[in-house]
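Dear support,

I submitted the protein below through the web form. The confirmation email said the job was done, but the results page showed an empty box. After a refresh the structure appeared. I'm attaching both so you can tell me whether what I see now is the final result or a partial one.
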Amino acid sequence: MRYRFYTADVFTKHVFGGNPLAVFPDARGLTAERMQAIAREFNLSETVFVFPPEVAAHTRRLRIFTPAMELPFAGHPTVGAAHVLAAIGDIPLASEVTRHIFEEGVGPVGVTIFTRDGNPVFAQLSAAKLPEFGPTRPSTEAIAAVLALEGADILEGQYSPQAVSCGVPFLFVPLRNRDALRRARLHREQWETVLSSFWAPALYLFTFETERNDSHLRARMFAPAMGVAEDPATGAAATALAGYLGVRDTTAAGTLRWVVEQGFEMGRPSILEVEADKAAGRIAAIRVGGASVMVSEGVMEVPV
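What the results page shows now:
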């Protein structure tokens, strides 16, 4: 059968920046095995397959695959699929701000699409799950060895490594500066020993030293278990990052905001806008958004 697909660059306003995404807007008839094979064929961080919703009040059902596995939730496929579906006219844009609900493995995910002159320019997801904090992480020295860094490159104290999940778990590793972030390299054998069976095997590295004046953090993400050597922009990690940062912020009530730059070391600059609402000292909601641009469309012949 022939299936139409589109590609978009997500978390960027510029073609060939951000995180590339393949979207199949009507994936009816595809099995999980075929979707996994297609994701391996594209070999992007994720490929998203769109189905009719199971609940009539929802907009679409999404299934998200990396080259190695299916994910219950991912940010750049959610944001990117919203942009693509709106851009090709598959989902309506009622006004300058339109809200939709996508069904994903974690449950219903709210998405808000912002438009200009009738075209989508920014999409923002609302995390379906609030942060879950993982078990005791490996030692700082062991984490440093995985990243070919020195223990002194990793922060301790208020900001120290911690595992957090908003549907997909990540090990957050705060680094002293951009130089340490640049020098980081995943040591696969050390990762196999230290992190492959840990609750959060994906590593999200960040520093508060940024390149852009209006950014708050600079990040990199390695996820070998997902078949992703390095990811240019990671929305699911950004939702969990809001949990990591939000619990460390003394603000009792209000909205916290961060701008994250990622993918710069890969030549794929990405900008993620992150928000966390706090009430009575607790995180009440998390949102992640960004711009996307359409790149290509085509048809794939998929064996039945």
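Response: this is the final, complete result; the empty box was a page-load delay. The chain has two domains: 2-95+292-301, 132-290.
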